[in-house]
């Protein structure tokens, strides 16, 4: 299952979150991560003790040296552990970042959902960095007034949400 990029505020500056939901042997994970360190170069520093949850996934916060090819591979493709498990890293948000969820409702329904989504993202980006834009559409049976038969008309309500960071 592909998870969305976790938008978690890190407790250490410039930390990286690694998904550990399906990992059962944590000592093997720590040994695998430490194996990227060589005698003169320390790429992996430490794993912070408290895991964080984002949707159904669990993440471990880790500290890495940023200017290495190992770090680039971790956040783009992922690193292999035991030749079969891919460890994927996600950069954390800055510790002073303020994440705000904005919900807009009763928006016009005559736009195509993709068009409306891109319009919302463009407009929201003027006040902060947009982390995620989602749309929820639902249909409520009934009409605009009690005079119309409920089977002949339906009111479509929309609710849209943007997650911004300031």
Shape: elongated
Helix fraction by DSSP (H/I, runs of at least 4): 10-25%
* Strand content range: 35-45%
Report the average pLDDT across residues. Answer: 77
Structural class: alpha+beta
The strand count comes to 10
Identify low-pLDDT runs.
143-160
The succession of helices and strands, N to C, reads EHEEEHEEEEHEE
Ordered list of secondary-structure elements with their pairings:
Blueprint: E1 16-19, H1 26-34, E2 44-47, E3 52-54, E4 57-64, H2 69-76, E5 79-81, E6 85-87, E7 89-91, E8 99-105, H3 113-124, E9 129-141, E10 154-165
Antiparallel strand pairs: 1-4, 1-7, 2-4, 3-4, 5-6, 8-10, 9-10
Tell me what you see in this structure.
By secondary structure, this protein is an alpha+beta fold. It folds into two domains: 76 residues; 67 residues, no CATH class. It has three helices and ten strands, in the order E-H-E-E-E-H-E-E-E-E-H-E-E. The strands form three sheets. Strands 1, 2, 3, 4 and 7 form a five-stranded antiparallel beta sheet that branches. A three-stranded antiparallel beta sheet has the order 8-10-9, with helices on one face. The longest helix has 12 residues. The protein is elongated, with a radius of gyration of 22 Å. About 11% of the residues have low confidence.
